[in-house]
Design goal:
The protein is of the alpha+beta class. The protein has eleven helices and 33 strands. It is globular.
Length: about 575
Amino acid sequence: MRFSNTLGLMPPLVSPLTSMSGTVLLWVLLAPFLAAQTPNGARQDTALEPGIPVTDPLVKAKCGTCHAPDERGNLDRISWVRTTPEGWQEAIKKMILEKHLELTPLEARSIVQYLSSRHGLAPEEAKPVMYYPERRVHDEIGAANDYPLTACAKCHAAARPLSWRRSADEWKRLADEHFAQYKVARNETAMAAVRKAGPLHTPEWTAWNARSQASNLTGRWLVTAHLPGHGRYFGEIQVERGATPDEFNTRATLHSINDGSTLIRTGQILLFGGYAWRGRSHGLAPSNSASSSAHPDDPSHDAREVMWISPDQNTGEGRWFWGQYQEFGFDVALQRAAPGITLLAVDRLSLKVGAQTTSLRIIGENLPTDVNAGELSFGPGITVRRVISSTSREVVAEVDVSATAPPGKRDITLRGAVLQGALAVYDRVDYLKVTPESSLAAFGDPTYVRGYQQFEAIGYQRGPDGKAHTADDLELGPMDASWSMQIFYAVDASGNDKIGNVSPAGLLTPAPRSPGGNFDIWVVATALHESNQNGKPLVAKGYVVVTIPAYTFDGRRYVRDLERWIEEGTW
């Protein structure tokens, strides 16, 4: 049995891996737990940097034989590090594989639960690196040539060390073990950066550790979500207590803003440390619908859920994802249902200046059923002509946009409730941007299924600086577009079929069988309704490398994992 299954609800991580040159990577951050332990538990830095005592009987019984205890209740190495549920899961996995630690699945889950809570990250520490367990491709370095963790990011995501907190002595030991075991050169710039970014004791952790971490997710939550290629959703999640205080059962009802369809998903989650939501869910597809296996982007597909719950346990955000490379997923936001008016969404993301008699649907909770035009505001330059209808769940209004309305984001307000930045007013669409701008997809083979990529064409108006692709540009939301693909260096489209195709909704589907090589392609979006100054449709491109699913180098076989290659069998 794979250890990743023994925790039941925990999503898989970027795995221990090796680079294309054969250097062992990623799991080196767990090397302190694999090294031989000192027989008396003595440490050089205990007088200067107190450890975190281990109080859980199971952890002491299972870990204390190798990680020697001291008189303060500290366990060697363990008491001087903190990390996420995924970090502790991976550490225990290595103990099982390398040190032959024997645990039942329930024992393993219990240990991860305790360590994530008492030796974990504070919510404020975990949030900046949530993209890592959410399995998002994230540009950690960008164009910065002086990024201090460049040395780390050459081998694994910089989020890997940033997901750990260690004493100064533990960071030094880690660097020494890199050098000794993997011949990784000492990099003082990187070590100074991680010591500064990841000290063992922080104000955030001290405050979080003093707070109650009781799990109280039960009740009704309001949901907004976005699934690329399918649009936006709203709805609710009912959360009920499970078999243990940290287990919960969920039932989500999501309504598509685009087409009005309804999706029901049920699932189970574990809550670690009072804020780390980790679970699985699946959709209850209508009996007459096609199997989700025939449609890899089907919203009812089985998914893993990774969410960050706010310290007050009233809001949450995260991702529900699936696919061979976790390439599909809902971006999800939660808020607890409350007695007052709550505005959730509006059915349009942008309005053009001069637009007349445009219908807008405002979606929410506990909306008044007697709304009049004077109570509803869309900001300067937008006049509410009349309220067409109002129910407790939605208000439909007819609005005019002044020809002189200033471009920019607008809040929507209704009787004191505010939906911030919900609507963009613009006078032109200056350019499109294909998202993601650069990405990977993968051919299939008899062992590995294809890796897809979903694209959207987002419209923008240049901001006050008059320059395109700068921070002050106004995002207008997805634009209707036709989709095509171009193979680099190809003289025509005759060879496209051996690479794949792009659907009308922007889904790139690679060929089911690998042609034996990687291909660089452009995925091209051509606007259906927006033109440039010359009257030609706006066009944007996204760069994609469609890769083979596996290859052999220097006697080792490698497969794709998210945005990098890993050695087969090491996850």
